[in-house]
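U., I forgot to send this yesterday:
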Amino acid sequence: MENEQDTVESLNPQGEVAPETTEDVSQETSATYEDFLKAQELAKNQKIRAEKAEKELKALKGQLTEKLETPKNDFSIKDFKALSDVHDDDVDEVVDYAKFKGISIAESKKSPIIKNLLKEKEEVRQTAQATNTGSAKRGTSKLSDDTLLEQLETGDLKEENIEKAAKARLERMKKGS
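Result:
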């Protein structure tokens, strides 16, 4: 080792042996070590962030389950009895009004506002039921012989009524003869 720098032999990209100095090797090693330290620090930071996110998630889950728990039923037997003659669709209105005013459900039901509301909704239900706006099927109407013959002459006769019109025409011819 005549030079101050020691040489280390390594292969270059062409596959030839190329001498490197220990200084070059130590620079590469220190750069690699710095990269390793940076990667290690990055991994540590990511681990800390992941643990923090898990803690936040657990806290949010706890809050959510508290909110999703079934609501407590604060109704007494008197309240159930008071609601017994109220239509199912109107129960929420009566209960909400009682909670809003801070009164019992029985008192809420006696209120003129709720009385009018319940009366109006009942009238609407009765009107809807009386009008029967559902899809009622129409009955088949029997066409008279005269109507069939008129349709035959004007050409407005439907295909399924042709046979009936022909029979009606024959009957008329028999009566006329």
